[in-house]
Amino acid sequence: MTKEEGEKILTDAGYSHIISWHDNPGTVNTEHAHPEDTGIVVLTGTIDVITYGMKDQHKAGDFYEFKAGLPHSSIVGPEVCDYLVGKKVIENAEGSS
To answer: The whole model's pTM is what?
Structure first.
């Protein structure tokens, strides 16, 4: 999957503030949560994502989402994993985020 294809998936799903992320093989991202809804598109490699004690493997081309505040962790597979992370920013009534 190309970066441009991944960005389109995220923007079509309502995500903005898109950044590229790169993790080396075997990288462990300990449990954490994001303050906003988060969408991820895997560009290369695989990543195991753990939520609610269950592990799901995501590979290149996969799109997945986390609701704001959902605790999760991840472990990168045996190859480099590149992915895009998009955030849904909700503006308040005054028009600021």
So the answer is: 0.88
